[in-house]
């Protein structure tokens, strides 16, 4: 059966120690479970990824047109990026991540979906702060093509607009900074955001000031640890 637990890698970062682990839980079946931790805080687990896939599916379903240019903010274990690439309309996917270590795990294929992303010529990694690039009115997300407009921006970094990985991220979830980010979307482009929490009326009110056709989709999934259904939220808004 192999090892029940293995720490694959652990590296310091500007926001704390980042680690990649693999474990097996015999009661849940004979499969590898990959986990990403920041210090003692869980960032991602391959036990739960339905909402990360839904982020891409729901976000791109709201976009009209072909040959889509898409940004994914937050690489994680690659589920959102992989789901986006399954949409045949996507012609290029930029994946932005602040943690170079996480990008390197995928490039070196230490995580299962690294091989999938590396093999797809539409996919490009961008090492940088999503929150800085989102409000950068000079270069934007793609320094190779300053001022470029995108069809969709899919964001999964913080646990929610209130439960932040770092307090400095709070300024992004405001009318001012969401409006700056929206300037990198074409007319009819979509912003979609993953959250671990139930729909937040206060954040929806902010979304309403920037986007149209706003929806907070509740995404159910089974939690085997609790033997019960759990939910995440995917917010979707369209540029006017």
UniProtKB/TrEMBL annotation:
SUPFAM superfamilies: S-adenosyl-L-methionine-dependent methyltransferases. InterPro entries: SAM-dependent_MTases_sf. This is PABS domain-containing protein.
